[in-house]
Amino acid sequence: MSKALDRLFADLPSRLSVEQLTDILGLSEKTVTYRWLREGRVPAIRLGGTWIIFRDDVREHLEAHYNTPKPSSETTELDPPENPEGT
């Protein structure tokens, strides 16, 4: 899961342009700038008319919002269910 994000972000600079962000997300520039950045769906800072977008902030945000369950440290999907009756 995070290996895919590592590959996606590996060759990018620490500060992203809006154009680079649109490429990463696969969205139009209009969607990214007028909706996602302004609504706070993607972490960024706006100074005047310029967006400051940090690569690591975006990567961490995307990783935190994966829609797959994270494995528990106590059990895994391969562990058999516990038998409360001990049989």
| Helix and strand run | HEHHEEH
Average residue-wise pLDDT:
83
Give the number of DSSP strands: 3
- DSSP strand content: 5-15%
N-to-C CA distance: 37 Å
Helix content: 40-55%
Strand order, biggest sheet?
A: 1-3-2
Counting copies of identical and different chains, the oligomeric state is single chain
Query: Which word captures the global form?
Result: elongated
Biggest sheet descriptor: 3 strands, antiparallel
Low-confidence stretches: none
Structural class: alpha+beta
Structure write-up:
This protein has 87 residues and is of the alpha+beta class. It is built from four helices and three strands. The chain has a three-stranded antiparallel sheet with strand order 1-3-2. Strand 2 (45-47) and strand 3 form a beta hairpin. Helix 1 runs antiparallel to helix 4. The longest helix is centred in the middle third of the chain and has 11 residues, at 29-39.
Record the SSE blueprint.
Blueprint: H1 2-9, E1 15-16, H2 18-25, H3 29-39, E2 45-47, E3 50-54, H4 55-64
Helix pairs in contact: 1-4
